[in-house]
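User: I'm writing a short methods note and want a consistent example. For Pentapeptide repeat protein, I'll paste the sequence; you return only the structure tokens, no commentary, since I'll be parsing the reply automatically.
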Amino acid sequence: MTAVAITEQNAGLVKHLWIAGAVTTAVALVLLLVSLRGKRNMLAATIVGAIGAFLLVTGWLFVVDSTTAKGEAIKTGGLAGGSVIALYALWLNDRKRRTEEARQAIEKDRQDLENQRSEHDRSRVADERFARAVELLGHETDQVRVGALHALAGLAKSRVEYTQTVLDILCSYLRRPFDGQSPLENEVRTTAQQLISDLLPRLDQVDAPHYDLNLTNARLEYFDLENRQVGNFAARRAQFISSNAFHHTAFHGNTYFTGAQNHGRLYLHDSVFHARAWFSNFVSHDNVDFHDSKFLGSAKFAYGTYLGGVSFSGTAFSAEPDIRALRVGGGGTAVLPDGWTADTVEAAEEEL
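Assistant:
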């Protein structure tokens, strides 16, 4: 089929195409403004705009090239109108995407708010449990005090941020004056000691938190921190009764046994002291075992007295320890590192 060229005989058609295209485009712009202001669907404006684009492009082709075939002009105009509709489709998809993103953001904010509300409720309940348990520690009945200790430990296990606070309270309970005469109170204290051990991270736990223990003036009996990690450890003027185990323990912070007294077997072997390890004025009436322990910081044993034997076999020190006026003897065997000198107990017996 031969294409029909546009000549001056159908110039009127071109004029009508321009007029119709201009009017249609103007109507499309009006519809677009109305849709934008009213936040309405722009489909009508798009269709009218596509028709306007078709008419204008077709008329324009007839003007710039009078030899253009009618079919080619209509095809090109149709492509122009289709492009308008395609642009609308792209805009519509982008709008849907942004709407979905906004919906997801709102949903996330709602979920975060719900989580915050839930966390606030859990924190409030935890605070109430904590306050109630602390209050019950002063109860006159030993079973109630044991229950309060377990409640605190359970809270620390479920809410990690309470762990150090709970450990402080357990240590505070052990620092209370006690003469060892009440079997019931001794059971409560044994429970507190066991819970402290349970709350501390195990030795093989990687990147574990370092919790501090303050047991100054405490009376400790069968206290066991074997295979545990500790931060700062203070047992100044503490009383160690029967048997206490701190072997295979990592002391990451400063450790103080200054002025403490040992009345049983004290196991400190195969442990690592990463910072200070001060045993100044320490008095032991039974065996103390330090064998194969490592002292990586400042170590002090000055004015210490070991009457029941002491072993430093295989110990390692990163710096020269302070052993001024160290005293050993009393019938026990003293195994000291090479180069150490100590006074015998006979020379210091009257002072004790």
